[in-house]
Specification:
With about 230 residues, the protein is mainly α. It has helices at about 1-35, 40-50, 55-60, 65-90, 100-115, 120-125, 140-150, 155, 160-185, 190-205, 210-225. It has one domain: Tetracycline Repressor, domain 2 (Orthogonal Bundle), CATH 1.10.357.10. The chain is built from eleven helices and no strands. The longest helix is centred in the first third of the chain and has 34 residues, at about 1-35.
Length: about 230
């Protein structure tokens, strides 16, 4: 009997601990979405989450960076699972190599996150990889752009590597910032708006490379070879 009671006590503590972790992550997500990671202190997160223990975040995550990484992993479990389902559906429908399907695969799980009331998308939009936040930037973001190559290999494979990488980054930054603004400002996206955005993103991804761009890239490549 005593053993059963101890086991039950451990389960209760584990459940309580998980609930506290989730509360801290969702609270941090909301604050980070509004002010960025560097604009929020651990004390603010603790207070906003209603936690009196000043070391609660250190206990659960080790540091602010640990909190950010765990938050990203927490949200991406759902996003990755949803993307896998959408990819299988696209393949079953025979549209897996359609640029439109590729863009929807990137966008739809993020839209669903916003519709669920999560602030993950505006949080990611503020997590700029070229700033001090770079240590937090998730590998999963790179994985998401890899999806584009997997779905439209003929299209993206024909582009120069530099152009392809630039298009992927441009697309993902545009998606995060546009959707993030809607979520942050509590402006619902209508079906017409969303489909208009999707059309624009497909155009961004598939636009032909101009002769001027090709020439400039060749000039830069030659200059780099001379320096190297």
């Amino acid at each position: 009997m005593a053993v059963d009671e101890k086991a039950a006590g451990r389960r209760r503590r584990h459940t309580t601990g998980e609930a506290t972790r989730d509360l801290l992550m969702t609270t941090a997500e909301r604050l980070f979405a509004a002010r960025g990671v560097e604009g929020v202190t651990l004390r603010e997160i603790q207070t906003e989450a209603g936690q009196s223990n000043s070391s609660v975040i250190t206990y659960h995550f080790g540091s602010k960076a640990g909190l950010v990484r765990d938050l990203i992993a927490f949200r991406y479990r759902t996003i990755d699972a949803r993307r896998a389902v959408l990819l299988e559906e696209a393949r079953a429908d025979g549209v897996a190599e359609d640029p439109l399907a590729a863009v929807w695969l990137v966008v739809r799980p993020l839209i669903e996150s916003i519709e669920a009331g999560e602030m993950f998308v505006p949080f990611l939009a503020r997590l700029a990889p070229a700033t001090a936040d770079a240590e937090y930037w998730p590998r999963q973001m790179e994985d998401a752009t890899d999806v584009l190559q997997e779905l439209v290999p003929e299209l993206l494979g024909a582009l120069p590597d530099r152009v392809r990488r630039g298009r992927e980054v441009q697309l993902y930054n545009s998606v995060l910032n546009l959707l993030g603004d809607h979520a942050r400002n509590r402006h619902p996206i209508s079906d017409a708006q969303l489909n208009n955005y999707i059309d624009g993103w497909v155009g961004m991804l598939t636009a032909p490379v101009s002769a001027v761009t090709y020439d400039l890239m060749e000039d830069e490549a030659r200059a780099k070879r001379r320096r190297g």
